[in-house]
Amino acid sequence: MPEGRPATGTIAIRPGTLEDIPALVDLLLAAYQGLEEYGEEGPAEARHYLKWLRRTCKEGFLVAEVEGRPVGFIAACPDWKDWELGRVLEIHEIVVAPAWQGKGVGRALMEEAYALGRAYGMALAALWVGERNYKARQWYAKLGFREIGRWGDWIRMFRPIPGAKGE
Ligand code: ACO
């Protein structure tokens, strides 16, 4: 695979399955290196967390593949109850393998999640991000998310879903 952005169409996004979990464990632990305070302690915890995400998000547990290899995933619940925002598309987790970051994989996963949120009639997307995860916070800001609050070490961010009714 050449360096840089993959050609349009080479990133395929599909539902994640239980068979994906071992590859996603490796991907999650690799992507959280240096951010361990916000990640999972080890492979067993990561496997447990990924199974919870898949069970909880169902339709919104999506894997990005390039040439048949998982390079990222998103876990998004399209109808989540937030105490302050009401019903939202909740982005529980998004992770791209370090070697594939900065090539449009994260954006492609977010766009699939937005489409799911629109299909459920949601107007807002929301997420929690670690306070010292500056890279992800900047990335979310670039994608149009705004900070609206915090809980301990976690920052709450949200944005209107692009193309949603009332945006
Ligand atoms: N700050 C600002 N802009 C950025 C950054 C950054 N840190 N990184 C990339 N961008 C730009 C890209 O250049 C691109 O711009 P363009 O579309 O105008 O060319 C755009 O943002 C889209 O970036 P992608 O390449 O799609 O992003 P990527 O595939 O790298 O995914 C992600 C971003 C998911 C944050 C990835 O870096 C990652 O896995 N990080 C480690 C794990 C993590 O922190 N996940 C988020 C935890 S919080 C939660 O899950 C709710």
Summarize the structure.
The protein is an alpha+beta fold.
Question: How is this structure best described in words?
Answer:
It is a single chain. This protein has 167 residues and is of the alpha+beta class. 30% of the residues lie in helices and 34% in strands. The chain has a seven-stranded mixed sheet, with helices on both faces. The longest helix has 15 residues, at 43-57. It is globular and about 40 Å long. The N and C termini lie far apart (38 Å). The relative contact order is 0.15. Residues 31, 91, 93-96, 101-107, 127-129, 133, 135-136, 138-139, 142 line the site of acetyl coenzyme *A.
Q: What's the arrangement of strands in the largest beta sheet?
A: 1-2-3-4-5-7-6
Query: What structural class should be given to the helix and strand makeup?
Result: alpha+beta
- Based on the structure, what is the oligomeric state of the protein chains? single chain
Hetero groups bound? Answer: acetyl coenzyme *A
Based on CA inertia axes, which overall geometry fits?
Answer: globular
Gyration radius from CA atoms, angstroms:
15 Å
* First-last Cα distance: 38 Å
The tally of strands reads 7
Mean pLDDT score = 94
In percent terms, what proportion of residues is strand?
A: 25-35%
Portion of residues within helices: 25-40%
How can the largest sheet be summarized?
7 strands, mixed
Uncertain residue segments: none
Order of helices and strands: EHHEEEHEHEE
Number of distinct helices: 4
